[in-house]
Amino acid sequence: MASQVVVIGGGPAGMMAAGMAAVRGKDVILFEKNKSLGKKLLLTGKGRCNITNISYDTQGFVENIPVNGSFMYSSLKTFGSSQLIEFFNNLGLFFIEERGGRVFPQTQRASDVLEKLEYFLRKSRVRVINGDVDQVVIENGAVKGVYLSNDLYYPAKSVVVATGGLSYPQTGSTGDGYWFAEFAGHHIVEPTAALIPLESSDKVCRELQGLTLKNVGFKVYDKDEKLAYEDFGEMLFTHFGISGPIVLSASVHLRDYEENKYTVSIDLKSAIDHETLEKRLQSEFDEVPRQNFSNSLGKLFPGKLTSVMVKRSGIQPDKKCSDITKEERAEFARRIKDFRIPITGTRPIEEAIITSGGVDPKEINPSTMESKLVKGLYFAGEVIDVSGYTGGFNLQVAFSTGYAAGDNVK
């Protein structure tokens, strides 16, 4: 019997779409070009799988999706974080909440999330075939089926494209869905790296490699000193620049690095204001008046950072603490609260957690995920130009759009 529905891509969006369509009685084939499903899912949350975030209502959730978040209103209201958790609970998987509303399986294993999704597919009688779709066949403005790379043809009334973006190509995300969409007449917003570490030419990053800073203020300015992004939290210095949760979230907002010449400003003592920090410095210096300035900062900074701050202070390393002037102290406090790092770009897109760009959501029905241009063509997941911050927002986007597509395929 001919398949009514073909789903291309066995990630979270594709598995959800296939399973939901089958639950509704559709005859569904899920094509995955890898030998196994969910390869990228197994990498999420450092192998623990941060499936969603429960700190926000629909409006708040949308605000954490800076790229085309408004497109997600309808699907999030239908299948948001509470519905996703209930879905997995009904399959026997339970979760814990961590800092910032992040939700992880109690077992702390992404493989358990994948196992439940595979069980869902079996239970709903989805046929999973290891095959590489080469073409979506469209005639008279409607989907007719798909051709595989081995020239096998599968007729279909509906096709769901859930092929992912360009990040982690070793997991199979090689941009196939963009070609399918473009062939169908869709506009593709140029794919760029999102949720990706930032590179810097400043040697200080290599000096501080491996140092994690927690509870720091974080701002990004463009070439005109206009604030491009602001956050608070944890970051990490690397041999190439900076990484960590607040850095990854910042990367979603940054574009055209050559033109904009971004600069990061880190507030190393965000818990206190400038005036209080000056008093703290005065107190530290008063405790060791005859000590060299370079030896007086042990209580203020971790070891690696101490030597860097001595260099950046503008104060001679061998100057006695009692001789440091009020002006020098004020300037040092300013530099502590405005630790600058120039940004030259991002790591390669292959290292991105997600891809920003893809199928223009203006050409997709936000309630059903059906193309506005081709009848029976649906999109779900990262192939759509929707990008959220780190913290479970992007996996929820995948599940919500997958659910919407599966629940509405003809």
Tell me what the structure shows.
The chain folds into two domains: 5-193 and 355-408, 3-Layer(bba) Sandwich (FAD/NAD(P)-binding domain); 197-346, no CATH class. α1 runs parallel beside α6 (110-123), α1 runs parallel beside α14 (393-408) and α11 (274-287) packs across α13 (326-336). The chain is built from 14 helices and 20 strands. The mean pLDDT is 94. The chain has 410 residues and is α+β, with helices and mostly antiparallel strands. Strands 17-16-13-14-15-12-18 form a seven-stranded antiparallel sheet. Strands 6-2-1-10-20 form a five-stranded parallel sheet, with helices on both faces.
Walk me through the topology:
Blueprint: E1 5-8, H1 12-23, E2 28-32, H2 44-47, E3 52-53, H3 58-63, H4 73-78, H5 81-90, E4 95-98, E5 102-105, H6 110-123, E6 127-130, E7 133-139, E8 142-148, E9 153-155, E10 158-161, H7 176-183, E11 188-194, E12 198-199, H8 204-207, E13 212-221, E14 227-237, E15 241-243, H9 245-251, H10 257-260, E16 263-267, H11 274-287, H12 303-312, H13 326-336, E17 339-342, E18 345-346, E19 354-359, E20 377-379, H14 393-408
